[in-house]
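Need residues for this backbone.
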C-alpha cells in the first residue's frame, strides 16, 4: 500500500529513495515563497489603505484584509497535495441567496473565514521565516558540505577552501571526509524536512482544510446536502405541477367539455342521458380534485405573482376567516424562500382549521430592511399546539433552517397561538408570469381562466 502522506512515508524504510523527501522540500520552499509574497501584499494593502483612509477611499481596502485569508487558504489547500493525498475541502457554506451582500454576510458569520485569516497572518509573520530557516539548515548546509571537493578543485585550486565560511579544508582527504559527512547530514536533513513538512501540513489542515471526519466539516457538508435536497425537491414539485397542469388536466378539461356537449345533444329522459350526466359529474369532480392536487404541489399563483398573492390566495381558501397584512411588500424573493414561506402559511392555516377551534386568524408578512422576511400567523383558538405532535411543522422548521431561517411556535393553553418565521433573504429580479391570467384587484390571478368547463356544466344541467 502506497503512503498517502509524508507521515506514513517517514515510517517506511525506503523513504530516502522515494519522491517524498523532495515533495517535502517543494512544499516548504513554495510555502516560504508564498508567505513572503503574502507579507508584502498585506503590508502594501494596509499601508495604502491607511494613507487613503483620511478620504474614505482606503476603508474598503482595509476591509479587504478580513477576506485575505480566502485566496491564501484556497492556495494552501492545493499545496497540501504535495505532502498529503487526502482530500482537502473548504469549510465554507453556500450563500442562501445570490448576490454580493449575501456572500459577504455569509462569510463574515463563518468561523472558517476567521480561522483562514488567522492562518494567513501566521503564515506571513511566522511560518515562512521558519520554513526558510529549516530549508537552510537541513538542505543548504549539507549540500554545501558535499560540494567541498568541488570547491577545493575550483575555487581553492587544490590547495585550500572554506566550507560555509567557517571550516577551512586544506587537503583532499579532508575534503572527501567533509563530503561523506555532508551525505550523512543530508540524509538526516531530509528526514527533518519530512517532519517539518508534515507538521506544517497538519497545522494547515487543522486551520483551513478539516478532514472529512472533522465535526465542522461534517456540519458544513450536511448543510450543503440539505440545501441541495431542498432545491431538487422543489424543482421536482414544479416539474410534476407543470406536467399535470399541461397534460392530465388539459385532457380532463377536454373530456369534460365533450361530455357536456354530448349531454346537450342526447335525448332527455333516456338512459343515455343519465349515463352521460353521471360521467359528466364524475369528470367534473375529478377535475376539481386534480386542480386542488396541483395547487397543493406547487400553486401557479406563487410562480406567477409571488408570495403576496399566494398568501392571499391561501387565506381565501381557508375555511376560517383570515385577515392578511403585508407590510412593506418586496419585489420577488428567491424561489426557495417564497416556496418555504408559502407552505408554512398554508400548513399553519390548515392546522388552525383542523385543531384550534378558532373563529378568526391573521397572517402578517413583512420584509424588513430588504434583508429579512418575517411571517406571523395568529389565531384566537384554544391554544395548546405542539410542533412535536405531528402537526407538520417539524418538516417546515427543517425546511426553514436550510435557508438559515428560524421557526418558533407559541401556543399557551387557552390561546392565542402565534407561529413566527424569520428567513434572511434579499429581493430577486421579478420574473414574468409563466401563464396567462390577469391579476385581480387583490393581487391574485383571476380563476376564470382555470374554470373552462363551468359554462358547459351549467348549460348542460
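Answer:
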Amino acid at each position: 500500500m502506497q503512503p498517502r502522506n509524508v507521515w506514513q512515508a517517514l515510517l517506511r524504510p525506503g523513504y530516502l529513495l522515494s519522491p517524498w523527501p523532495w515533495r517535502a522540500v517543494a512544499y516548504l520552499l513554495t510555502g516560504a515563497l508564498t508567505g513572503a509574497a503574502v507579507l508584502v501584499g498585506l503590508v502594501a494593502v494596509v499601508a495604502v489603505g491607511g494613507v487613503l483612509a483620511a478620504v474614505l477611499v482606503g476603508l474598503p481596502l482595509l476591509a479587504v484584509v478580513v477576506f485575505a485569508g480566502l485566496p491564501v487558504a484556497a492556495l494552501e489547500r492545493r499545496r497540501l497535495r504535495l505532502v498529503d493525498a487526502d482530500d482537502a475541502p473548504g469549510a465554507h457554506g453556500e450563500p442562501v441567496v445570490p448576490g454580493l451582500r449575501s456572500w459577504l454576510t455569509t462569510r463574515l458569520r463563518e468561523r472558517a473565514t476567521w480561522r483562514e485569516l488567522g492562518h494567513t497572518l501566521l503564515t506571513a509573520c511566522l511560518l515562512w521565516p521558519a520554513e526558510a530557516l529549516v530549508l537552510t539548515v537541513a538542505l543548504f548546509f549539507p549540500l554545501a558540505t558535499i560540494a567541498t571537493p568541488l570547491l577545493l578543485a575550483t575555487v581553492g585550486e587544490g590547495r585550500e577552501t572554506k566550507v560555509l565560511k567557517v571550516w577551512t579544508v586544506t587537503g583532499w582527504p579532508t575534503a572527501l571526509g567533509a563530503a561523506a559527512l555532508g551525505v550523512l547530514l543530508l540524509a538526516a536533513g531530509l528526514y527533518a524536512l519530512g517532519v517539518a513538512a508534515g507538521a506544517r501540513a497538519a497545522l494547515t489542515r487543522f486551520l483551513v482544510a478539516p478532514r472529512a471526519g472533522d465535526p465542522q466539516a461534517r456540519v458544513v457538508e450536511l448543510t450543503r446536502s440539505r440545501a441541495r435536497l431542498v432545491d431538487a425537491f422543489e424543482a421536482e414539485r414544479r416539474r410534476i405541477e407543470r406536467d399535470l397542469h399541461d397534460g392530465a388536466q388539459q385532457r380532463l378539461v377536454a373530456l369534460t367539455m365533450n361530455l357536456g356537449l354530448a349531454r346537450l345533444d342526447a335525448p332527455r329522459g333516456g338512459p343515455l342521458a343519465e349515463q352521460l350526466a353521471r360521467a359528466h359529474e364524475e369528470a367534473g369532480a375529478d377535475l376539481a380534485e386534480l386542480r386542488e392536487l396541483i395547487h397543493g404541489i406547487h400553486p401557479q399563483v406563487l410562480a406567477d405573482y409571488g408570495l403576496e398573492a399566494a398568501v392571499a390566495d391561501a387565506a381565501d381558501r381557508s375555511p376560517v376567516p383570515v385577515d392578511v397584512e403585508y407590510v412593506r411588500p418586496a419585489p420577488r424573493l428567491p424561489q426557495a424562500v417564497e416556496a418555504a414561506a408559502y407552505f408554512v402559511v398554508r400548513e399553519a392555516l390548515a392546522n388552525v382549521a383542523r385543531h384550534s377551534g378558532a373563529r378568526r386568524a391573521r397572517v402578517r408578512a413583512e420584509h424588513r430592511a430588504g434583508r429579512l422576511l418575517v411571517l406571523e400567523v395568529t389565531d384566537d383558538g384554544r391554544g395548546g399546539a405542539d410542533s412535536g405532535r405531528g402537526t407538520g411543522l417539524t418538516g417546515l422548521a427543517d425546511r426553514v433552517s436550510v435557508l438559515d431561517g428560524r421557526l418558533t411556535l407559541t401556543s399557551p393553553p387557552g390561546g392565542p397561538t402565534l407561529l413566527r418565521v424569520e428567513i434572511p433573504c434579499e429581493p430577486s429580479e421579478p420574473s414574468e408570469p409563466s401563464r396567462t391570467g390577469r391579476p385581480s384587484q387583490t393581487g391574485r390571478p383571476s380563476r376564470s381562466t382555470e374554470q373552462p368547463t363551468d359554462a358547459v356544466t351549467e348549460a348542460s344541467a
